[in-house]
Amino acid sequence: MNALIEAVRAGKVNEFSSEVIKVYASSLTQVGDTTLLMVRTTEGKQLIVVGSGDLFDQLQGEVVEGGKVAPLTHANRLVINQFLPYTAPQAFGTQVATMGLGDRLGIASPGHIQTIRGKDIRPVLAQQSIRELALTGRTYEDVLDAAAYAVLQEGYTDGYGADGDHLKKEADIEYALRLGFTMLTLDCSENIDNTIESLSEAEIAAKYEQLPASLRNRYEERYLQTAANVPGATLAYTAEALKKDVLIYDAAINFMEAIYRKYIVTLDRAVDFEISIDETATPTSPEAHYLVANELRDRGVTIFSMAPRFCGEFQKGIDYIGDIAQFERELASHAAIAVHFEYKLSIHSGSDKFSVFPLIGQYTNGLFHIKTAGTNWLEAVRVVAKVNPTLYRRMHQYALDHFVEATAYYHVTTDISAIALLSDVADAQLPDYMEENNARQLLHITYGLLLQAKNEDGSRTFADEFFQTLAQQEDTFAEGLRHHIGRHLELLGK
Ligand SMILES: O=C(O)[C@@H](O)[C@H](O)[C@H](O)C(=O)CO
To answer: Is 66 left (phi over 0), alpha (psi -120 to 50) or beta?
Structure first.
């Protein structure tokens, strides 16, 4: 370590590698007789490896005088996981607050670690949905590699999670679990029957009567003849509401149980199992939340967290839309139900919900899971708007031209006509777009189209210049995340 430290201090680390642009001092790590240090060179981030021993031998890289230069490859990440367990993801369980910090770019986690380090909450750094992978062209291997190298770079040893988010298909569940993901968010939206909401009371009754008598009797006995007793929750079942909830959620509950028995119970390691019923047209009433939770417990299904679809709108990248008084009333019951069944309430589309963060921190007693992703992408876009106006203008215009296409993936109520005309905005004011809801949603939901856009010659329309800009502005991006995600945590009471 001394030789390496001396070389770093003397600015002679170039002896180990091509032109070194930046040294990540927090990454300096000793494992036996091997010393690691992450640097950024003209070829990007690399590991300087000096010394000897199994870790030195197993890391693949170019042997140079005095050591080895190892690229941040998937194979090297697996070796590092083996020798430095804190660089592999872990499950957290229900007794600590956790925050999903979805990083669609693979470069945000260092800023996330700098933000969350030392706080009473743990990061799920490797959180991506299959939808995000499809839109960005990344893999779950990429997601885990980026998170693990960020942990090494920042010397963060408090632990992080990896969430296979919004998984609907068994093949995707198997994929995430095979790679070692430590959180599984089961998206039940395709098993929830939203059509029930549009039926009349008579149509609901007739449909309900078609269910097996044994099933109807069981539900009626458990929810009409037995009072739900959850301290802090206001629950009032009516026969009509019960019939509707049974028709909406019964198939989804069977799906939850089936996946739990096939994939969670059989694991030889801890996995945080989250139930997501948030991405549906039907808001989750507290009574419906209780019904789902009670059925799961009755069937022996243990969960880490539940994500209901709250009243109002939790849209992407903007603050809560709706009646905050009603939200508070229902949140009190949702939180009480989660406490009663010993899991955490999960807040999806948690980005930028500043007006309700204090309520969430209050009613969950600071024990929650909250998910963000798009807002981290928008902080990167903000950096581009600040330092590369030409690129921002090209991206903004492309987003406008392809917005309708992007609405197939996300529910938003964006008013494109309310967005200031690009030609009317001076370069210095371009970052202001990130303060305006409609512009935020425009750039938010078009991330995949922007990152995967190609020119006629096959070159990437924006991505290469985008990532080059962010690499040059690494500290600006990290500072933007510290500020923006820091505001999230502060209002959540962390
Ligand atoms: O965009 C996605 O698919 C995810 O980021 C998803 O929205 C996630 O579950 C979330 O709620 C992030 O705020």
So the answer is: left
